[in-house]
Amino acid sequence: MFDSLTSRLGDVFDRLRKRGALSEADVTAALREVRIALLEADVALTVVKDFINAVREKAVGQDVIRSVSPGQMVVKIVHDHLVEVLGAGATDLSLQAVPPVVYLMVGLQGSGKTTTTAKIALRFKNREKRKVMMASLDVNRPAAQEQLQILGKQIEVETLPIVKGEQPLAITQRAINAATLGGFDVLLLDTAGRLHIDEGLMFEVAGVRDLAKPHETLLVADAMTGQDAINVAKSFNDRIGITGIVLTRVDGDSRGGAALSMRAVTGKPIKLLGMGEKLDALETFHPDRIAGRILGMGDVVSLVEKAAETVDQAEAEKLAAKMEKGNFDLDDMAMQLRQLRKMGGLSGVMGMLPGIGKIKKQLNEANIDDRIIKRQEAIISSMTKAERKNPKIMNASRRRRIAVGSGTSVQDVNKLLKQHQDMAAMMKHVQKVGKKGLMRGGLGGMLSGMGNPFQR
């Protein structure tokens, strides 16, 4: 998300930073480009106007003129106002109510509402250790109720049994009774959607809202629909009254205008971001971190949190012990590849690193491809235990067998073995120089000579 906006703003602010002093004309010219960049990112016109006016008021003031680094000061003003537009701080899902805490999921058909319901259920189950029930009120879309039931089995969360012919209000009442009698902490109600806003949809959702009296009403909106998502958010907020927004398909939207507009238009916080199809691909929306990503400052905090969530502590300690001895076999390499994939792949990790926007073009030209990670895992899986422990025994016939078994080529196998050799050499280097030497050499020193292992 925000790739195109990050690229455009990066160019504007790079030019500002290079100037020793800034005149009002310089700031005006820069803000004109910022305005165009925001409009191209599909940000609502009214939001763009308010944003530019607020930034201009601060950017032409005495604080900027007297600043040691005027260009950097303008970037800070834009950053601070981006945070303000997106919402002052992260607003997580609330469970401060008498159980079962009812969550009402609303939105248009095709926005990813049912999948998001399951994602939130899994989040409550794993993170909050709550007993969760889901119920589908969608009697219009074919197999909608069955879809939620299947998702429930996948994440081991109970769903309300389906009664054919039962209408939304009756399902709602039965779900509330079942959740209360069953001692559930949370009840998620997945309402029906339509292809567009209509009176029938609003009447049905309003009836469910009045009966269920939800603690939270979350609008699920597709980020890729741009301005339409903003209009949908305004309609649902005006008619139903939402408490928060969940943006889906964020990983497929390079513009990000919906995120910047919906908070400003509705006054309601964006609470979660759907980052992919997997049921654990759901992130808390942090305005300050998102603003940092937009301006190419990275999001190291989220990267560290993601690592902490996905790293297997026992495996990490085992690898650290082997590194101290200078040992690094292909099983260890496979573990590192799995870890990288869990963290969202190479592109997901790099998107959170500071300054990555500046080298985006070079990265694209380098043909970095996350699919190679799965291919490399397949190659290692096709090896015997002895081969993984001792790659030196890998002769030509073994390499051909592994290539056939993994559906790759001998060249791919050779490339992986060379990569492992380089990584093993790096591990020995780490052992030799120790922690102090590693700190002096830095990451660049560690990776020198490894080339680009993730090329297509």
Describe the structure.
This protein is of the alpha/beta class. It folds into 3 domains: 3-86, Four Helix Bundle (Hemerythrin (Met), subunit A), CATH 1.20.120.140; 101-301, P-loop containing nucleotide triphosphate hydrolases (Rossmann fold, 3-Layer(aba) Sandwich); 312-447, 434 Repressor (Amino-terminal Domain), CATH 1.10.260. It is built from 21 helices and 8 strands. The chain has helices at 3-18, 24-40, 45-59, 62-65, 70-86, 113-127, 144-155, 168-181, 199-212, 227-239, 257-266, 287-294, 300-310, 313-324, 330-342, 345-350, 360-365, 371-381, 385-389, 396-406, 410-447; strands at 101-106, 132-136, 158-159, 186-190, 216-222, 244-248, 270-274, 282-284. β5 (216-222), α10 and β6 form a beta-alpha-beta unit. The longest helix is centred in the last third of the chain and has 38 residues, at 410-447. It is flat and about 70 Å long. It starts with a helix and ends in a 9-residue tail after the last helix.
